[in-house]
Design a protein that fits this description.
CATH superfamily: PEBP-like
Shape: globular
Order of helices and strands: EEEEEEEEHE
CATH architecture: Alpha-Beta Complex
Distance between the termini: 31 Å
Number of strands: 9
CATH topology: Phosphatidylethanolamine-binding Protein
Number of domains: 1
Protein name: YbhB/YbcL family Raf kinase inhibitor-like protein
Pfam family, one: PBP
InterPro entries: PEBP, PEBP-like_sf, YbhB_YbcL/LppC-like
Radius of gyration: 15 Å
């Protein structure tokens, strides 16, 4: 890994570890804090998705979609619900399992699923409506993607 590669950490979750209860649908269901490293100097916005990547029916099931976050080194935990978030530079939350809000892991009891956070660094603000879904976000963001990094955790 080069020293200039974009990475992020979640202070309470390491790669492959179990999600802390507070960030799940069986706990407080708060979005976690993220600390970003080596964000591109020409970055304009940040987006985050959370996906269940071991869903038995859907190969990948999107739990959370937020975009147009201002560029920053630290994204606070417990991002509130809402289509547009004035307190976060008018970031927008789209339609996912959490409709316009974070919805943490909550698989059927006794079934372990893997959940992946992906943080995207973009060179612009996206002109998507809050009714956008992940597929809309991916299509719109692809030509503007500067950097991307992932973190996967488990929950049962």
């Amino acid at each position: 890994m080069s020293n200039n590669e974009f990475t992020f950490e979640c202070p309470d979750l390491t790669e492959g570890a179990t999600f802390p209860l507070r960030y799940t649908g069986r706990g407080e269901d708060f979005s976690p804090e993220f600390i970003l490293h080596n964000v591109a100097v020409n970055a304009q916005t940040i987006a985050i998705t959370l996906d269940d990547i071991k869903h038995p029916i859907f190969k990948t099931f999107n739990h959370w979609l937020i975009w147009n976050l201002p560029v920053q080194d630290r994204i606070p935990e417990h991002i509130p619900a809402g289509k547009i978030l004035p307190e976060l530079g008018n970031a927008k939350q789209g339609v996912a399992y959490g409709r316009h809000h974070y919805a943490g892991p909550k698989p059927p009891r006794g079934k372990q699923h893997a959940y992946r956070f992906t943080i995207y660094i973009l060179d612009c603000e996206l002109e998507l409506k809050p009714s956008a879904r992940k597929k809309d976000f991916l299509k719109e963001s692809e030509p503007h993607l500067l950097q991307k990094s992932e973190l996967t955790g488990l929950f049962e």
